[in-house]
């Protein structure tokens, strides 16, 4: 019998990201997948700004950017006429270094994560099937079936199911997968096209609905709804040609298909992301429509949220009750995203005559005006970007009793530019991917604290801590080259600090506790209650 801290079942983006988190935390684990090779089919196609931030906690966001297309334009057509284009290069947020989506295939994402894990000595075990998973109060026993038919018994502290919609882990845990299939059927094709279009995402509405994405090697992906009478028939190139002819403004020939398939879309969510020592992440926990490209990104966020919590409990840094917060925080986000993507999808793929009229004739009139101002475009994209995700209802976050700032415990920590000497750095570069981080702010104006004041404030906070906390002091006026300078006070404003303040940030980049330095004693009490 083999013993390990964590068994990860499923090596898609969620499983691979969780592996990266646990490897960084020096936690022992194994990751298995039932497929013999990694899929080369490109399913999900986008990484959003918040996901890039989470990847860059490990310094790897650029690896993905180098393989994708950043800030790809979106062009929308209605009734065979051009309506509007959205250039994400013109969208700007004041609190992040990443402003638009990165178009990159899931196959490339998995390949990059696989390569990064191999460099750390971690290899996905394929094809290995989890046949039986049984838990007791002390751990979990899993029976694995190897490629040669042999069985292996593995004993672990926790199992995480990243094994998709038909999750063995979810079924073994006795968890429900609540929801249903959408009524529409869909078809997909990766083809070459004879057209002179811009290399961007195209959305066509009219007598149907179609999205066209640029892929590698001059291949385009077509995704569209299909007629109910055709649902039991495999799609042909002619099916796609007919739909293209009805939706595009000019004739376009399709040829040389590399992949065609039909599928149904589902919207489902597990009734709990945790059952004792068994957890769910990614598509095993929730499946969405592709509207907004939320599914894969959300699964990666699940992995980041769960990874540091598992590591903290396994090392005995925190009590096991910390793990309860995973379901509390992430399932609520799953529900919000499910509701949001449902609304977008139902409107775009509707067969309701009233909605069809609004979509095909009213929306094209409103959209150019509504999206003509960059601020409106940024506001519309903020939900999709996942930068606004927060966990204010979580029992493991908070703020001091007198804190009146806009940011609260559970919010994402904003990013902004700072100076250390002559070197430009960012707030997020000060944060640890494997540890909590404490930022002390001097405040702005006459009431700002000196560097010595911040040092005195820091001292009692760092006593009796089981694990190191990264600390940084950010000032608005500095005479020393090694201090971190926010010369114009913009980062102070992002965090809501005019007076001296502090913020304790979790390894996933969310605020655990925030307040003014005048109420610093409340953080000491919080630290003791949370057993930090």
Automatic annotation (TrEMBL):
Cofactor: FAD
Statement: the UniProt record of this protein carries the keyword Ribosomal protein: no
SUPFAM superfamilies attached to this UniProt entry: FAD/NAD(P)-binding domain (SSF51905)
Gene3D superfamilies: 3.30.70.2450, 3.40.30.120, FAD/NAD(P)-binding domain
Domain FAD-binding: 4-339
GO molecular function: FAD binding; oxidoreductase activity, acting on paired donors, with incorporation or reduction of molecular oxygen, NAD(P)H as one donor, and incorporation of one atom of oxygen
Keywords: FAD, Flavoprotein, Oxidoreductase
Record bears the keyword Kinase: no
The protein's name: FAD-binding domain-containing protein
Organism the protein comes from: Mollisia scopiformis
Biological classification of the source: Eukaryota, Fungi, Dikarya, Ascomycota, Pezizomycotina
